[in-house]
Specification:
- With 143 residues, the chain is α+β, with helices and mostly antiparallel strands.
- The protein has a domain of 57 residues: Beta Barrel (OB fold (Dihydrolipoamide Acetyltransferase, E2P)).
- A five-stranded mixed beta barrel has the order 1-2-3-5-4.
- The longest helix has 24 residues.
- The protein starts with a helix and ends in a 22-residue tail after the last helix.
- Keywords: Membrane, Transmembrane, Transmembrane helix.
Amino acid sequence: MFILLVVGLVGIGVAVALLVPLKVLGATEPLRPVAATVVETGSCGQGTDTVEWDANGEKKQAKLDGCGHTKGEKVEIVLTGGDMVSSAASVPSGPPITSRLTALLLCLAALAGGFYAFLFRYAPLRAPAVLPVPTPRRAGSPS
């Protein structure tokens, strides 16, 4: 009965930990894509492309962390800070729950292993390793 309670509480804990918004846990705001235009192309062996986008009425330019685009091509970028921007397709989207899920499943496995060790060490009823074999009765002896 105790193990069912523990597994149930851990299951509820996993569900709450995965459903809690990342903002509550102190995660940063996800990067938003911005439409940009390639103004200068660079060959993939030499360097990077240069893109231009509109930032509140002001035109800004930065190096794109990628190459092979044609001049005038529209691309979606994310502003990562500094003088380099990244393509929006190369940035993972969605909440990074895999690391939280991995940690929670590791804790659940450790809990199950600890409980198994507890049962192995402190088994309430230890059965004998070899059960005694009953001796057969003789046909002529009284029972």
